[in-house]
Amino acid sequence: xxxxxxxxxxxxPFGNPFRMISPRGxxxxxxxxxxxxxFEVTLEERLxxxxxxxxxxxxxxxxxxxxxxxxxxxxxxxxxxxxxxDLPVNDWDEKWIDVYFDISVKLLDLxxxxxxxxxxxxxxxxxxxxxxxxxxxxxxxQYDRACSSLDGWKQHIGSGNPRIEKCGSILDGLLGSLxxxxxxxxxxxxxxxxxxxxxxxxxxxxxxxxxATFSGSTKNVMxxxxxxxxxxxxxxxxxxxxxxxxxxxxxxxxxxxxxxxxESVDSAVKELYPIIQRVVDPIEMESLxxxxxxxxKSTEKLSQGLDxxxxxxxxxxxxxxxxxxxxxxxLRSGAIVIHSNMGSNRNAQIVK
Length: 352
Prior knowledge:
single chain, mainly alpha, 11 helices, 70% helix
């Protein structure tokens, strides 16, 4: 598993994954295998839903919303899998708990960073609304105000977000968590670890796409080298190659943003500037009306998309937080001796 620039480096999750099906150690029964297979089939179906024939549908707010929904559903599936396996917390290996708490705090940090960026982008909507209001007049003074609002919007959207800049180090930590603890004595544990691995791969991929999109840089793009052992690996590789390649193409084209809805607004703004500055010709007036209408539609679509994605990010945050709180409650009621490292993870402060 590696970032894009280290694509040739790879390693097997859990050590050697083929050890899982070797005759040594605890074997997975046919019943447990069926449970795992059903989980992975569902995971693969979610991956397929993120693969669109048209590249124009990728890197849009609607696609990102679907990706975040896939994460929430997958984490809920893990919770249901634990219940189906009848694997109470007091049977969990200490290392599994360590990993879970460490991952959960990183995910909460990422959710907070993504929410802050979505909020910042939504704040720019007011500037667009002011511009549209002033463009409803034929006054040169109103046009000047509209230009000022549009300049303010572009400057606001183009400014950096310190929280997003921290996502790279958090993602590096998540990348390391893919090397999950080995499971030697528990067949149910092996099933849980393999299922968790698939969800973690989806998590790192989706979060890296979010971070790259919001940061305006390819430095957060990751290439995850998943072993062919997993039934969903082919679908994941297809998705990853499709999305990562589109990210690189859009960045290399010098676009203002790689996000579809933002690019649509920016295109309308670029068309407006020269017309606003010299509106006298009736033909230009007609052209202005059409472009203003287009900007209005693009602005509304951007606002709606941001609202929906914000709700999904908040929903995922609650899924992670609820799961974390439930495990803590079970640990306390089970009177389990908690490893010191896990304790520090549990009490870690979320980056704000």
